[in-house]
Amino acid sequence: MRDLRRVTRGALTRGVIAALALALAVLFGGCGRTELDVGGDDGAAPVDVAPGDVPSGEDLPDGFAPDGEDVPDGADVPDAARVLTSIALSPPAVDLPVGTTQSLTVTGLYSDGTNADVTAMAAFTVDNPAVVGLMGNTAAGLAPGVGTVTATVGALSATARITVPTAPLRSITVLPGMAAVGIGGVVRFTADGTLADGTHVDVTSSVVWDSTDPGVARVDASGVATGVSAGTATVTASLGAIRAWASSRSPRPPSPGSPSPR
Q1: Does residue 92 form part of some domain?
Q2: Global model pTM greater than 0.85
Q3: Has residue 106 been placed in a domain?
Q4: What is the 3-class SS of the chain, one letter each residue?
Q5: Overall average pLDDT of the 196-204 stretch
C-alpha cells in the first residue's frame, strides 16, 4: 500500500511539472505564434499560423485575422484600406427655370478604382441663395441668375453650376406621347419644358407624375410607368398650373389556344 502511494504521488508530481512547463511555454515561447496540428494521425506536418504569414487578399482560417482582430468566418483580408480619393457632382451644369427643381448626386471614387454613390455623406451649400434654393441635395430655381452648389465630403468637394433663365416656363411635353407596355413591363417618360423664348429644358425631375388609372399603369416619381393590367391609362406631368400627358396601354395577354398574331 505504501509503495502504491509513493507511485501515485510521483505520477501526480510529474503531471504538475509537465502542466507548468506547458503553461510557461505558451506564455513565454513562440513570439505570438500559434501551432495548429492539422495533420491528425496521417503523418501531415503541423501548420504554423501567425498574423504576418497570410498574404493580403487571401482567405484566413475561420476566426483568424491580422493583429488579433476577429473577422466573420470565410471573410477575406483586404489588400489595403479603401480610401475615398475624389468626388463628382452631377449634373455638373443645369438650366433650372423659376419654379423647377433638380436633384443632385455625388459620386465618390475610391483608391481601389471603384465608384459609389456618396450623396448621403455629403453636405451641400449654395453661394447665391436668392437665385438657387437648396434643400438637402435638391436645388430649386428661385429667380433669374446663376448660382453654384458645392458638395463636401470630408476634405473633398465638387461643384455644380445652376443657371436660372430669365424666360419663364411656357409649356411641357411628355415623351413619348403614347407607349404600349406589357403587364409587368416598364416604360420611361420624360418631360420637356419649353420656355417663353423657345428654349427647351429637361424638367423630368421637376414635374409631379401621376396616372389616371394606377390599376392599369402606375408611374413613379421619376416618370417610370409599369404595366399592371390590360387597359389604357393616361400618364400626366404637372408643374404648377402647367400640365401635359401621354397615353400608356397595356395589351391584354392572348388567351390559351388563341392563334398567335401574324
Answers
A1: yes
A2: no
A3: yes
A4: CHHHHHHHHHHHHHHHHHHHHHHHHHHHCHHHCEEECCCCCCCCCCEEECHHHCCCCCECCCCCCHHHCCCCCCCECCCCCCCEEEEEEECCEEECCCCCEEECEEEEEECCCCEEECHHHCEEEECCCCCEEEECCEEEECCCEEEEEEEEECCEEEEEEEEECCCCEEEEEEECCEEECCECCEEECEEEEEECCCCEEECCCCCEEEECCCCCEEECCCCEEEECCCEEEEEEEEECCEEEEEEEEECCCCCCCCCCCC
A5: 91
